[in-house]
Amino acid sequence: MTRKTAPSSAKKGAAKSGAKASAAQPRPKRTAKPKTEAVQQAVERRDAAQNVDVAQTGAAAAAARRTRKRVPPAVAGGDGHNPFRTHMRRTRAPEPATLVIFGATGDLARRKLLPAVFGLWQDGLLGSAFNIVGVGRQPMTDEEFKDYALAALKESKETDAILPGNLEKFRELLYYEYGDFSGDEVYDLVGRELDRAEEAHGGRKNALFYLSTPPSLFEPISSGLGRLGLADQSEGWRRIVIEKPFGRDLASARALNDAIHTVWDESQVYRIDHYLGKETVQNLMAIRFGNAIFEPLWNRGYVDHVQITAAEDLGLEGRAGYYEEAGVVRDMLQNHLMQLFALTAMEAPAAFDADAIRDEKVKVLRAVKEIPRGRVKSVAVRGQYGPGTMDGEKVPGYRQEPNVKPSSPTPTYVAVKLEVDNWRWQGVPFFLRTGKRLPKKVTEIAVVFKRPPLGIFPGGLERNVLAFRIQPDEGVSLKFSSKTPGQEMVLREVVMDFRYDAFGAQLESPYSRLLLDAMLGDATLFPREDEVDHAWQLVSGILEAWDGVSAPEFPNYTSGTWGPEAADELIGADRRWRRL
Ligand SMILES: NC(=O)C1=CN([C@@H]2O[C@H](COP(=O)(O)OP(=O)(O)OC[C@H]3O[C@@H](n4cnc5c(N)ncnc54)[C@H](OP(=O)(O)O)[C@@H]3O)[C@@H](O)[C@H]2O)C=CC1
Ligand SMILES: O=C1O[C@H](COP(=O)(O)O)[C@@H](O)[C@H](O)[C@H]1O
């Protein structure tokens, strides 16, 4: 929950209690907002750019820009005195650095990245000197980009309360370069931005390159930066953050890893999965490994099965170009759900550090029984939403969404059963499901325990459930049976509930957390090369069986329902998907 503006007269105490109250309120429903003028103009420029040869028309402008003189402010960074801050206590600040965002005019940058960076800066967490270079293909001046970015901050629901005067100060940190990502010129311009910042950054040229572009550009950008020597760390650290999906199948993920490693050492590479930046996902590790009472039960002796759900009420949201290529397996299962699975099923790491955690995640991913093409039918179910009603409003089916083929075979729902061949989990199925246009937005990991061995009371033979609510209503609940009041020993299920808002803290954006980690050189919450590889290995049988194969049964679930009926068969007669 974030508040859009801070009353300038607010006193510290009042602000704190305000934050607490807002954290307890339900998250407002996401609705499309009218775009502000600057954002609208940028979108129009983007549309025009599709028909413009930037390399040609940009050459003269780029030459002019190269000779331009500008010096980034010597002292960047909010003063950290943010009375609204109720999160992010860090003792370490990153060294002075430049954040270079490729794809700075895109949806992710506009809605999530710029607000996340602004929040970090306003909280004084970005050190003594910092600046941002947006890079895109659209011709734009620095001033236009500054207008664009500030408009995006005002528009995004993810932006923290803006303290008076801070937008104007933040504006000073923003620069923009543009060009053709397959050429050299744009990287040369980026290099010059790092040169310009050097003095203000204490003689260092540290840089974090964030690739927020379509995946097809990850390799060209990585190589372009390499060609121009920008991965070289002799004048400062250089790191690259790569968005998802990382590859479109096992072979292309491997090829991308190989290409990236010709330029970057693995220690410089940060493959981002924003689910790992969510507080509640980290809390899964805290609860498992920070308490003695759960771990003894966390195995085949006590657990019947585990359900991992990432349900979305939203549909395509205008992302047909991307989603028609990706589908739900690449969009959610291969990355976010596999990460949730790995954190739930892994052994205890020896320490809370990048290698120890990533080693354990890889070990458990390797222990999952393969899903070759021939086994897909028995362990995976796909679905595509049809028209329906959500919150009383009619919504179109997937095939009626703009720019979707009328006979599209793209799945928008997947449920899969994973079996882990190790001593801890032998015989305990993990059921993962995710889909769009399900009844509500909810992400949850539910550990469902075995029934008691003997029933001596009426009732009381239900399965206990420990549920981690990742979002919304973040928290953890334990469902167990209790005596109901009265003369008889009759048992009924009750729930013990911990809600994250009990901390009175506003949960930080996962992008803030992960950006700061990357700037500090902490890769703990970023998937390593071998993790991504194993996750691809697991889903490749599913992709091979489904990709491009016509799915005549589509649509097979109505918008606003919990997915196709076949998913109920997958989980089995003695188990039920949780109705959340
Ligand atoms: N949007 C989201 O919520 C999420 C996105 N992601 C990932 O983040 C990345 C970016 O996604 P998103 O912002 O939605 O994508 P968009 O399509 O909205 O934006 C992509 C950016 O890349 C630029 N771009 C596109 N094609 C080219 C090209 N040929 N040459 C140069 N620049 C180009 C766009 O410029 P222009 O503005 O000119 O089109 C824009 O700046 C993707 O990898 C996506 O999978 C991950 C999680 C969530
Ligand atoms: O990566 C993605 O995630 C979002 C869901 O993220 P959340 O943090 O809102 O749960 C999903 O809508 C999108 O399709 C996918 O690309």
Task: Write a compact overview of the structure shown.
With 580 residues, the protein is of the alpha/beta class.
Mind explaining what this structure looks like?
This protein has 580 residues and is an alpha/beta fold. It is globular. The protein starts with 11 loop residues before the first helix and ends in a 9-residue tail after the last helix. It folds into two domains: 38-82 and 90-243, NAD(P)-binding Rossmann-like Domain (Rossmann fold); 276-446 and 525-571, 2-Layer Sandwich (Dihydrodipicolinate Reductase, domain 2). A hairpin with a 3-residue loop joins strand 15 (465-471) and strand 16. The longest helix has 26 residues, at 320-345. The chain contains 16 helices and 18 strands. Residues 1-35, 46-72 and 83-88 have low confidence and may be disordered. Catalyzes the oxidation of glucose 6-phosphate to 6-phosphogluconolactone.
